[in-house]
Every structure is written in structure tokens, then in C-alpha cells.
Amino acid sequence: MSEQVYNTSIDIEHFLPHRRPMLMVDAILDISAEHVLCSFLITPDNIFVEGDTLQEVGLMENMAQTCSSIVGQRFYAEDYDPQSDKRIIGFISGVKQMTVIMLPKVGQQILTESTLTSKFDADDYSICTMLVQAKHDGELLSSAEINLFLKKQ
């Protein structure tokens, strides 16, 4: 039996600077200052799909974007204006203990959950560490500890 496809009214652009074709999160299902749950449906036109499988780099990008949405809240506040030039840059500064158990296939929806374990905020940047897991139908696909650096441009 296939996992439920989730919809949400939370606008992803309020939390992530990514846009298609690099956007690897479809919806934020639940978010707080220390936790986030996102969904992502693997489509055949995804830039990281090879054959009928999302490659490791796509899974890693999904996990990193899920993590960065927690910190992105700080930069993309409720006064978000899509016409403004307000943007942040972010990158993975470190990955510890990433394990890939299996790769998702086209047509599968993955649920990616992340928990903030530490964070340092300055005026225009944040550095954080997060634990993250990606699952399909309750089965673990991948897990990691990710360090992120985000900065206002």
C-alpha cells in the first residue's frame, strides 16, 4: 500500500532559497524552531533521477534542504516579499555518518524529518548541526548528521 500524498498550505518559498529544478522539497508538513517534516515526490524529470531511481546526490540534497528550512525561517520571515531581492546562500559545511540504505524510485514520495541539535546565530548568518532521516512508506532510506552554513546576501 502506497504512502499518503500530503498537501500543505505552507509556502516553501518562505523557508528555502531554492527554486526548480534544484528544489528537492515539495511541501513542509510540520515545522518548528527545532524540527521539520517535509515531503517530496520523485518525478521522472528530476535532474537527479537516473533511469527510474533518485541518485544519492538527490537524496542528499533533499535531506539538506529539509534541514535548511528550519534555519531558513529566520531569514524568510512572515513579511516575505517574493518580488524583493532578499536571498540567502547556504551550503553543507559537513556531513557525518551518512548512511544510504536504499534509493527511492520515480513515483515514490519520501518523507524527510530533521531535528536541530545545535545552532549558532550571528546577525547575518547561522551555523547549525542537524540529524536527518529520509523514509518511504516508513522504511528508512537514508540518515545523516549534517552541518549547514546559511548567510544573508
Written description of the protein model:
The protein is mostly beta strands. It is built from 1 helix and 8 strands. It has one helix at 56-75; strands at 27-31, 35-41, 49-50, 53-54, 88-100, 109-121, 125-136, 139-152. The strands form 2 sheets. It has a 6-stranded antiparallel β-sheet, with helices on one face. It is globular and about 45 Å long. The relative contact order is 0.23. The model is unreliable at 1-7 (pLDDT under 50). Pfam families: ApeP-like. This is ABC transporter permease.
How would you summarize what this structure contains?
It is built from 1 helix and 8 strands, in the order E-E-E-E-H-E-E-E-E.
Record keyword descriptors for this entry.
153 residues; mainly beta; Thiol Ester Dehydrase, Chain A; six-stranded antiparallel sheet; two-stranded antiparallel sheet; 1 helix; 8 strands; globular; disordered N terminus; HotDog_dom_sf; ApeP-like_dehydratase; ABC transporter permease
Uncertain residue ranges: 1-7
CATH classification class: Alpha Beta
CATH fold description? Thiol Ester Dehydrase, Chain A
Structural classification: mainly beta
Shape: globular
Count the E strands.
8
- Percent in helix: 10-25%
Rg from alpha-carbon coordinates? 15 Å
Indicate the proportion of strand residues: 35-45%
Distance between the termini: 45 Å
Largest sheet: 6 strands, antiparallel
Q: Biggest sheet: strands side by side, in what order?
A: 1-2-6-7-8-5
